[in-house]
Design brief:
heterodimer; A: 555 residues; Porin; 24-stranded antiparallel beta barrel; 4 helices; 31 strands; 4% helix; B: 283 residues; alpha+beta; Glutaredoxin; five-stranded antiparallel sheet; three-stranded mixed sheet; 15 strands; 18% helix
C-alpha cells in the first residue's frame, strides 16, 4: 500500500492522480490534457500586431501508468505555433517529459524527467508552471532513501530542460532532512516538533572564455529548520553560493547568499504570518549565459501577495529579483465573531496584508575600470536596507456574508511598483496606485448565481510618481448555472490614459461548459497587455484581439 | 546507501573558487605565417558615440583581438538611439544606412547597447550577445568549425575616380548545401571623434564622461553590394569550386583613404550565420 501511495504522490506532482486502493498490481492509467487556441485580429490601437498564422495553439497531454511498485509516464506537448507571450523557442511538437519510477521498501529511484524541491527552493527547485511557459524539469536520475523513521535523503543528477533541448550545464545535488521527533518514540507526541534539513547542489559548465577564468563547478548550499509548537510555527533557511559570474549578475565573481524567516501563528478566528528575506546575488542557472525563465536551478519564494483581481494582478505584479532584494511581509487574518454588532449574522473576515521590497545597501568595489576590478562586484551592508524601493503592497480585504443569497467582499490596495527595476526598463519610473475592488455573489435558486466585480485603479500624485497608463476602470458580471454553464462579460477601460487615442475599452465575453472532468471555454474580445506572475516568476502577456478557445480534460 | 555516499562525496567536491578571474597574457599564435585557409570569425559590436558603456565593450573586443589576431575580425556598427539623435551631449554621427538596417533586423539597439553578434550565431537562443559572452562564443566557433570556404580580396582605391574596387575570389573547401550570399563592405579606422565614456564601464585610458578625441576603429562606413549582399551559391556547391566577383563604390567624402579596409563575408540565408569572413586594408 505504501508504494501505491508514493506512486500516487509522484504522479500527482505532474498533474493527475487516480487513486483506487487495494488493487496494487492492477495496471492503472490516468492523464489529463489541455488545448489553448487563440485567433488574432490586428488591433493597432491596443498594440496587437498582425499574426501571420492568424491562429496559434498550445497543447499538452500527460499519460501516467501505475502498476505495483512501478510508475511511468510521459507528456506530449505541441506549440503550433506558440501563443503570443510564450517563448517562441517552444515552437514544435514532441515528448517533453518521460520517466520511470520504482519504489520498494524505503528506496525510490526515478529515471528520466522529474521535478524536485529542497526546502523552500533557494538551493534547488525544478517545477513546471504551464501558464508561465516555465519548465526546468530535470532529466537524469533521482534516488530517495529513507534511512529510518524521520531521516530522508534525496540525491539528484542530470541536466535541465531548456525549451526543446537540455541546458548545457550538469547538476548534481543532495538533500537530507531529519524530523527530530521521529527519532525517538517518546518524542513523537511532543507538542514541539523540530525538523532540520540541509542541501548541497553543484552545477558544472565548461569554461570556454579566453579572457576570464570562469568557475566550472559552482556550489550552492544551505540549511533550514522548522519549529512547530502548538499554534506557532517558525521556518528559517539560509543559503550560500560561491562565485558564479553569469549574465544575470553582469559576470561578477562575488559570492551570493540568501536568508528567509517565516513565522506563523494561528488560532480560531485569527491567523498571523510574518516573514522577512534577504537575497544577494543568488540567481543560479545551469547555463551562465541563459536569460528569461530558462534553466533556473533555484527559486526564491515571493513575499508579496498574489492577487486575482485583474487590475491588481496583471498591471503591476512584483517579480522576485534574485540578483538582490530585501523583503518583508505581514498578514493578519481575523474573523469578527458572528452574531456580534460588527460581525453580523455570519461573521466578517478581515485580512490585512502588508508587503514591502527594497534594494540592498551596496557599495561598488570598482575603484577604476580595470577589467579585473569590474568583476569583483560590490559589498553589501546586510544590517541596512538599500535606499531604492522596488515595491510595496498594503492591502486590506473585508468579506461578509449577509444572508443565504448575498456575499460581498471589498478590497483596497495601495501599490507601489518600480518599473525600472522590476521590468528592467530604464526610461519609466515608479508608479503608485490606489486600487478599489468590490465583489458580490448573489445566489439565486436552483443553481443560478450572479457574481459581479467593480474595480478601479487610480494613479497617485503625478508630480512625484510615474503615471504610466493612468487610471483604469473595470466591470465584470458572471452568471453561473450550476453545474454546467457559466457566462462572463467584462470591460476594462483605460479612461485616464494621457494619450487620448489610447483611452480604449477592452470588452471580453466568455462562455464555459463543464461536465465531469471536462471543461470547454470560449471567449471573444480584447486582451490587455500586461504581466502574468505565479509565485514571483512572471511572463509578459501581449495585447491581443480575437477568439480564444480552451479545452481541459482529465481521464 | 553506498551510492548515496558516493554521490554526496562527488557533490561536495563540486566547487571552484576563482581568486583572479583574468586569464593573464594567454595568446594563441597568429595565423599570418601559415597560408593555409583558416576559419575566421566576425564580431560585430553595436555602439554609438552617445553610448557611455560601449568603450568598455570595445576594450573587451580588443583583448579578444590580441588573443586571436587575424582569426578575429572586428566591425563597429554605430546604430540606433545612441548613434543618432538620442545623444545630444555628443556631436557627430558615424552610422550608415546598412548598419541601421542590420541593427533593426536583429533588434540589437532595441535591447540596449553595448551588445554584439559573433558570426550572427545564436548562443542560448539569442544572436544578440553582451560583451561578457563574446569570448566564449568566439572560442566555441573556432573550436568547433571546420573551415569550409576561403576568401581572397584584392582591394584598390583610385584617387582620380574616387572609386574603391574589390576583386574577390571565394574557394569552397567542403561540399555545401544551402543558399549563400556574399557581402562586401568598407571599414574605416582611426576616426578621431567625440565619445561618451562612463567611469566604471568605459575605457579607463580616455577621459570621462566624454572623450573629445576618441579613436574610433573599424567603423562600418557602407556596403558595396547592398545590406544583405548578392547571391553567391544558391542551392549547393561542390568542394573545389571557385567563384570570382568584383564590386566597386565611390569613397565617401569624409573617409580617409589611407584608413580604409574592405570587409567581405559569406552567410547562409536561412540561418543568417556567417560561413567565412575576411578583410584587407586598401592599398
Amino acid at each position: 500500500m505504501k508504494s501505491l501511495i508514493g506512486g500516487c504522490l509522484l504522479v500527482a506532482s505532474i498533474g493527475i492522480c487516480t487513486t483506487t486502493y487495494g488493487q496494487e498490481n492492477e495496471l492503472r492509467i490516468g492523464g489529463n490534457t489541455q488545448l489553448d487556441m487563440q485567433y488574432y485580429y490586428p488591433d493597432s490601437i491596443i498594440g496587437a500586431d498582425t499574426v501571420p498564422e492568424k491562429m496559434l495553439m498550445n497543447g499538452y497531454t500527460n499519460i501516467n501508468f501505475i502498476k505495483g511498485n512501478w510508475s511511468a509516464g510521459f507528456r506530449y506537448e505541441a506549440y503550433v505555433n506558440p501563443i503570443l507571450g510564450f517563448d517562441p523557442g517552444y515552437e514544435g511538437t514532441g515528448i517533453s517529459y518521460r520517466y520511470v519510477t520504482y519504489k520498494q521498501d524505503n528506496i525510490e529511484v526515478t529515471l528520466g524527467n522529474f521535478y524536485e524541491q529542497f526546502g523552500s527552493g533557494m538551493v534547488f527547485r525544478t517545477y513546471e508552471a504551464r501558464t508561465l511557459g516555465y519548465d526546468n524539469a530535470m532529466d537524469g536520475f533521482r534516488i530517495r532513501y529513507q534511512v529510518t523513521d524521520g531521516i530522508h535523503l534525496t540525491s539528484i543528477w542530470g541536466k535541465q530542460r531548456q525549451l526543446w533541448a537540455l541546458g548545457e550545464g550538469l547538476i548534481r545535488g543532495f538533500d537530507g532532512e531529519v524530523m527530530i521527533n521521529e527519532l525517538k518514540e517518546s518524542w513523537k507526541d511532543k507538542k514541539t516538533q523540530l525538523t532540520l534539513g540541509g542541501s548541497f547542489v553543484s552545477k558544472y559548465q565548461e569554461d570556454k572564455d579566453p579572457l576570464y577564468i570562469l568557475p566550472e563547478n559552482v556550489g550552492n548550499y544551505g540549511g533550514r529548520f522548522n519549529l512547530n509548537s502548538g499554534n506557532f510555527n517558525l521556518y528559517g533557511e539560509y543559503a550560500e553560493k560561491i562565485n558564479d559570474p553569469s549574465r544575470d549578475n553582469g559576470f561578477i565573481y562575488k559570492d551570493g547568499r540568501a536568508l528567509l524567516l517565516e513565522a506563523t501563528y494561528s488560532q480560531k478566528g485569527l491567523g498571523v504570518y510574518l516573514a522577512g528575506k534577504m537575497v544577494d546575488n543568488m540567481a543560479y542557472r545551469s547555463d551562465r549565459t541563459a536569460s528569461g525563465n530558462n534553466v533556473m536551478i533555484n527559486y526564491h519564494p515571493a513575499l508579496t501577495k498574489q492577487h486575482t483581481y485583474a487590475l491588481a494582478a496583471t498591471l503591476y505584479p512584483y517579480a522576485t529579483q534574485p540578483t538582490g532584494e530585501m523583503a518583508a511581509q505581514l498578514e493578519v487574518a481575523y474573523k469578527i465573531k458572528k452574531k456580534s454588532k460588527l460581525g453580523g449574522k455570519y461573521g466578517t473576515n478581515v485580512t490585512l496584508n502588508l508587503s514591502t521590497v527594497q534594494g540592498l545597501d551596496t557599495t561598488t568595489l570598482v575603484t577604476n575600470s580595470s577589467a579585473e576590478n569590474k568583476r569583483l562586484g560590490y559589498e553589501v551592508n546586510y544590517f541596512n536596507v538599500g535606499s531604492q524601493k522596488y515595491f510595496h503592497d498594503y492591502n486590506i480585504e473585508i468579506s461578509r456574508k449577509f444572508n443565504k443569497h448575498l456575499k460581498m467582499k471589498y478590497t483596497y490596495l495601495n501599490l507601489l511598483y518600480n518599473m525600472n527595476v522590476v521590468q528592467g526598463l530604464q526610461t519609466k519610473g515608479t508608479v503608485l496606485t490606489h486600487i478599489h475592488v468590490l465583489e458580490a455573489t448573489h445566489r439565486l435558486t436552483n443553481g443560478h448565481a450572479i457574481r459581479w466585480e467593480m474595480q478601479h485603479l487610480g494613479v497617485a500624485d503625478e508630480n512625484k510618481y510615474y503615471p504610466d497608463m493612468g487610471n483604469w476602470a473595470y466591470g465584470l458580471v458572471e452568471y453561473t448555472y450550476a453545474p454546467h454553464w457559466f457566462f462572463t462579460v467584462l470591460d476594462q477601460y483605460n479612461y485616464g490614459n494621457k494619450d487620448e487615442a489610447r483611452r480604449v475599452h477592452y470588452f471580453t465575453g466568455v462562455v464555459g461548459y463543464m461536465k465531469g472532468q471536462h471543461r470547454i471555454q470560449a471567449g471573444y474580445g480584447r486582451q490587455r497587455a500586461g504581466i502574468f506572475c505565479v509565485g514571483g516568476v512572471c511572463r509578459n502577456v501581449p495585447a491581443a484581439n480575437g477568439f480564444t478557445l480552451s479545452i481541459t480534460s482529465n481521464f | 546507501m553506498s551510492t548515496l555516499v558516493v554521490i554526496l562525496l562527488a557533490v561536495l567536491a563540486g566547487c571552484d573558487h576563482v581568486e583572479f578571474p583574468n586569464q593573464g597574457n594567454i595568446t594563441e599564435p597568429p595565423d599570418t605565417t601559415n597560408h593555409a585557409p583558416v576559419q575566421k570569425v566576425m564580431l560585430e559590436e553595436f555602439t554609438g558615440q552617445g553610448c557611455g558603456n560601449c568603450p568598455g565593450a570595445a576594450v573587451t573586443a580588443r583583448q579578444l583581438k590580441n588573443i586571436y589576431n587575424d582569426r578575429l575580425i572586428l566591425v563597429s556598427i554605430h546604430a540606433g538611439w545612441f548613434a543618432n539623435g538620442g545623444n545630444p551631449w555628443v556631436p557627430g554621427d558615424l552610422s550608415c544606412a546598412e548598419g541601421e538596417e542590420i541593427d533593426q533586423s536583429f533588434g540589437i539597439s532595441a535591447v540596449g547597447n553595448p551588445n554584439g553578434m559573433v558570426n550572427r550565431k545564436a548562443a542560448n537562443g539569442s544572436v544578440v550577445l553582451g560583451p561578457d559572452a563574446w569570448g566564449t562564443q568566439v572560442a566555441d566557433i573556432l573550436d568547433h568549425t571546420a573551415v569550409s570556404a576561403d576568401i581572397e580580396i584584392s582591394a584598390d582605391y583610385t584617387g582620380e575616380t574616387g572609386q574603391i574596387t574589390a576583386d574577390i575570389t571565394v574557394s569552397y573547401l567542403q561540399d555545401l548545401s544551402g543558399d549563400y550570399k556574399i557581402v562586401a563592405a568598407i571599414l574605416e579606422d582611426d576616426i578621431v571623434a567625440p565619445q561618451t565614456n562612463y567611469d566604471g564601464n568605459g575605457d579607463p585610458d580616455y577621459n570621462s564622461p566624454t572623450e573629445n578625441n576618441y579613436p574610433h576603429q573599424h567603423i562600418l562606413r557602407g556596403h558595396m553590394n547592398s545590406t544583405w549582399g548578392s547571391d553567391l551559391a544558391p542551392g549547393s556547391v561542390a568542394s573545389g569550386t571557385t567563384t570570382q566577383v568584383s564590386y566597386s563604390m565611390a569613397k565617401g567624402e569624409t573617409w580617409d583613404p589611407s584608413n580604409l579596409s574592405v570587409l567581405v563575408y559569406i552567410y547562409e540565408v536561412s540561418t543568417q550565420e556567417i560561413l567565412q569572413v575576411e578583410s584587407v586594408h586598401i592599398d
